[in-house]
Specification:
With 386 residues, this protein is mainly α. The protein contains 15 helices and three strands. The mean pLDDT is 93.
């Protein structure tokens, strides 16, 4: 089965958006002390700067599952696909806790080991490699069960010190494990995200439909997901641990309504983000040739872009600190603040963050274009892993 342009276009779009969130995380003046989704301190622009980037992780994980299905159909070799998937999953776990974690924190002592999106995709690949004999429809159904019902876990009355709770907690919700002056942070609990991957795997079958049928189906799924999000959110009982409340004005009440939980990804978070993703998949190949050309450059080399963009942004962060009068001896890398000194004001306002984001994305265009061409023209074994 040939490569699907709509997948790479949508993946490229969210790769571009992702860089905005990471520039904001590392360089925004208030990112160390304030949450952009805290309605008591945020602004509408800052809130939606963060909200739009919610689209990224679920799209990555979903399309990773879809790509596995398409690869399996293309190779027609279950054993080979399973072997490659298992090895790639292990590689992604290693990559997360070495190159990616260092790029994020620049902490040579690795005082924070963060389990995030690369590791959760790696975990998902390993788990999925063991389930490939199961029908895709069954796996998709299991994925939907996870998405719709994993929010019930916190209300199950486990005994406080039960072994079952200790085992399940890091699989379903964020947990921090301190050890030897360091911390292992389960930022992306793997089971809810694995549900998204399973759903994505089953949806790969839709790419066997004709282009027009597929576009209509994706549009229906997208609008249905957003409608279901609206209905469940209005009821305001289930679907997200953070219920919406009336705020000081209509704008902030709307922000409260949209303020869904990513850690772990709630049902409502999945409905709104995946709903938007399906709509993008439906229209991706209708975009102008110029937009398609640009987004395809990033979408065809997602892991390469992901790793390199962290290092670029972090180097810019250190340059920012130097220009703002800090010396290297003041940089703090062990505290999880990306080198920025705690208790001392640093960073740029939001409008500058947007300019730096555009600069970073533009800077990476040529390297991504070069790597995409190199990968297409060469058959080295290691290219399959990057």
């Amino acid at each position: 089965m040939k490569r699907q342009p709509s997948i790479d276009i949508v993946r490229g779009i969210v790769m571009i958006i992702m860089a905005l969130d990471h520039v904001r995380d590392l360089m925004h003046v208030d990112s160390i002390t304030q949450s952009p989704t805290d309605l008591s301190t945020t602004s509408p622009l800052l809130f939606f700067t963060r909200f739009i980037t919610h689209l990224c992780a679920p799209t990555f994980v979903f399309l990773a599952g879809t790509s596995v299905y398409l690869s399996l159909q293309s190779k027609k070799d279950l054993a080979e696909t399973r072997k490659f998937l298992f090895k790639r999953g292990l590689w992604l776990l290693v990559l997360e806790f070495t190159i990616v974690n260092f790029g994020l924190f620049f902490d040579i002592g690795f005082h924070s080991l963060l389990f995030e999106v690369i590791a959760t995709i790696g975990f998902g690949f390993i788990a999925l490699s063991l389930l490939l004999k199961i029908r895709s429809q069954t796996l998709g159904f299991i994925g939907l069960l996870i998405l719709f019902f994993h929010n019930l876990l916190p209300i199950i009355p486990f005994a406080e010190n039960s072994i079952l709770k200790a085992v399940l907690a890091p699989l379903f919700s964020p947990v921090v494990f301190p050890f030897s002056g360091r911390a292992f942070i389960m930022g992306y609990p793997p089971i809810p995200w694995f549900g998204i991957m399973l759903f994505g795997f089953a949806t790969g079958k839709f790419f066997e439909l004709s282009k027009e049928k597929r576009k209509k189906l994706f549009a229906k799924i997208g609008w249905s997901a957003l409608a279901l999000f609206t209905i469940i959110r209005l009821v305001n009982i289930y679907g997200d641990p953070a219920l919406w409340t009336t705020q000081k004005n209509a704008v902030f009440t709307f922000l409260s309504f949209m303020n869904v939980t990513k850690y772990p990804p709630s049902l409502l978070f999945c409905l709104v983000t995946l709903g938007i993703m399906f709509l993008l998949l439906a229209v991706a190949e209708n975009f102008s040739n110029k937009i398609q050309k640009v987004t395809l450059v990033y979408g065809k080399v997602p892991l390469f872009y992901f790793v390199v963009h962290f290092y670029v942004i972090h180097i810019l962060t250190l340059l920012m600190l130097f220009t703002q009068g800090f010396s290297f001896s003041q940089f703090e890398f062990e505290t999880g603040t990306f080198g920025r000194p705690k208790g001392m004001k640093s960073g740029f306002p939001l409008w500058t963050i947007y300019l730096i984001w555009i600069f970073v994305v533009a800077l990476l265009y040529k390297p991504c274009q070069w790597y995409g061409k190199y990968k297409a023209e060469n058959q080295h074994w290691w290219l399959k892993y990057i």
